[in-house]
Amino acid sequence: MTHVVEDSQRYYRWRSYGPGDRRMEELWVDLSAVQQSKVRVHGILSNTHRQAARVALSFDFPFYGHYLRQITIATGGFIFTGEITHRMLTATQYIAPLMANFDPSFSKNSTVRYMDNGEVFVVQWDKVRLQGREAEGTFTFQAALHNNGTIAFNYREVPLPVEKINSTEHPVKVGLSDAFMALLPSPQSSDARRRTIYEYHRVEIDTTKIINNSAFEFTPLPTCLQHTTCELCLISNLTNGCGWCNTLQRCSDGIDRHRQEWLDYNCPEEERTEHTAIIAGVVAALILLVALTLLAVYYINTHPTVAPPFYLMQRHTNNYWPSMKFRNQSCHSTYAEVELGGHDKEGFIEAEQCC
């Protein structure tokens, strides 16, 4: 089961760049100019259809406030970012410069390449074609993951508008998505629980801007997870809606990949207790402020030649539990995961049909 909420521009802000824009040229990573020993052509992905392979990163990549050290590259023009590989990779937790039904096995010139230099990890789908529509032409595009969390989608060859790509056999998506898994009571049994995937946020971009020599740049915004102390968690101006859980020593709004743990350790109850204490403290401070103000007014009235300045501080309260809206998702294509050697994580998962 998957659910989705629309982009609130809470996690990322993004900009698009067209042909001739200087920033577009800066974002493009020319793999042909990189030392060839650092660029890896994935032999299996370059010769198969609907396959995915896990690859280790050389740095911790921040994604929606979570640090990733491993991602999954798929032949279908996207990167899966989930920790738990499930059969519907295209449903949630992805970085998708152009998710579609690409088949690199059609031509020897079609490849899936990647490069990691410690500062940026780049995946390039090079001269790939859509299955069943090979005559439409080749697509060349890349996703660049920078170690500061910035993500760039770069497009060199886009032979037809994205709106004209058929999504019947495979989802067509462009953007970012993250989700959390939660164990919910099963309708078949009161004692059993089922694992449910909630896609809590998605960034969808204007696909009409995807043309030859275009680019998108996603800049991460601060999240509750980055705060490491209770004080910063509750009073930082960079974020809102954050709560602190002493048991976990974690700052969160309760809507992230750690949600199950947040609930299991009763962090919402702890947060409400702390919030009540904060309110009590604020009320006490206001009473003291009013008393001091009255004394100051009395002092000024009895001493007209003295007029000390007063500085009032305003405290903004936040809604600690934002509402969540969900909608049902349709069936998504399945992928098989291929086994890799070397430093890549090994494993093979057979995908089943979800419909």
Automatic annotation (TrEMBL):
<keyword id="KW-0732">Signal</keyword>
<comment type="similarity">
    <text>Belongs to the plexin family.</text>
</comment>
<feature type="domain" description="PSI">
    <location>
        <begin position="223"/>
        <end position="268"/>
    </location>
</feature>
<keyword id="KW-1133">Transmembrane helix</keyword>
<keyword id="KW-0812">Transmembrane</keyword>
<feature type="transmembrane region" description="Helical">
    <location>
        <begin position="277"/>
        <end position="300"/>
    </location>
</feature>
<dbReference type="InterPro" id="IPR002165">
    <property type="entry name" value="Plexin_repeat"/>
</dbReference>
<dbReference type="InterPro" id="IPR031152">
    <property type="entry name" value="PLXDC"/>
</dbReference>
<protein>
    <submittedName>
        <fullName>Plexin domain containing 1</fullName>
    </submittedName>
</protein>
<keyword id="KW-0472">Membrane</keyword>
<dbReference type="Pfam" id="PF01437">
    <property type="entry name" value="PSI"/>
</dbReference>
<dbReference type="InterPro" id="IPR016201">
    <property type="entry name" value="PSI"/>
</dbReference>
<keyword id="KW-0325">Glycoprotein</keyword>
<dbReference type="GO" id="GO:0016020">
    <property type="term" value="C:membrane"/>
</dbReference>
